[in-house]
């Protein structure tokens, strides 16, 4: 009998995440658009990214946002990735405070190729992404046929429903 051959180490399977990036305050890298570009470098493993777009603020802030969406590939589970994203935000100067206040950097897990995820402090898909044109339009440019795991609708369909003019009363 021969000694057993050790099994090869199997790396965890990488998954794709859609990460929403936003900034509406200057930081150490400069204007919000520069903060987005620097954050993309910090994320690493970016397989695709949208152009940076300007959007109106949500809530009481009066500063316009620079927004983008990136697709990253990683073996991290959503909770582990969230810890890393929060660390990047802090390194860029994000401080806790008013929920809708201005910020140097905001990083959100919008979707992941593993479907839905729920844990304390994190829900994927992002709870509000279906109503946010500044997320859906860039995302539709990258992965128009990716399906929302909760509604079954494609990103293209979701983006079109947000952009559709609503009748006036």
Please sum up the structure shown.
The chain is of the alpha+beta class and 169 residues long.
Structure description:
- The chain has 169 residues and is of the alpha+beta class.
- Helix content is 27%, strand content 23%.
- It has four helices and seven strands.
- The chain has helices spanning 32-43, 78-91, 133-142, 155-163, and strands at residues 15-23, 46-49, 53-55, 65-74, 106-112, 117-119, 122-124.
- Strands 1, 2, 3, 4 and 5 form a five-stranded antiparallel sheet that branches. The protein has a two-stranded antiparallel ribbon with strand order 6-7.
- Helix 3 (133-142) packs antiparallel against helix 4 (155-163).
- It is globular.
- The mean pLDDT is 86.
Low-confidence stretches: none
Span between N and C termini? 83 Å
Mean of residue pLDDT values: 86
Helix proportion = 25-40%
Q: What percent strand? A: 15-25%
Total number of helical segments? Answer: 4
Number of strands: 7
Task: Give the radius of gyration.
Answer: 18 Å
> Which secondary-structure class do the elements indicate?
alpha+beta
- Compressed to H and E, one letter per element, the order equals EHEEEHEEEHH
Largest sheet: 5 strands, antiparallel
3D shape: globular
């Amino acid at each position: 009998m021969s000694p057993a051959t050790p099994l090869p180490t199997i790396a965890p399977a990488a998954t794709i995440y859609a990460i929403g990036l936003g900034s509406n305050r200057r930081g150490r890298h400069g204007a919000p658009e520069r903060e987005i570009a620097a954050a993309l470098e910090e994320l690493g493993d970016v397989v695709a990214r949208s152009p940076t777009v300007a959007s109106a603020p949500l809530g009481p802030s009066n500063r316009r946002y620079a927004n983008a969406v990136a697709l990253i590939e990683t073996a991290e589970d959503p909770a582990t990735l969230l810890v890393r994203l929060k660390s990047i935000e802090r390194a860029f100067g994000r401080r806790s405070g008013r929920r809708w206040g201005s910020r140097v950097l905001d990083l959100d897990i919008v979707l992941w190729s593993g479907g839905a995820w729920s844990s304390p402090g994190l829900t994927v898909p992002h709870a509000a992404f279906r109503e946010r044109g500044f997320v859906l339009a860039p995302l539709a440019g990258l992965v128009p046929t990716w399906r929302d795991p909760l509604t079954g609708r494609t990103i293209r369909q979701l983006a079109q429903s947000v952009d559709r003019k609503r009748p006036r009363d």
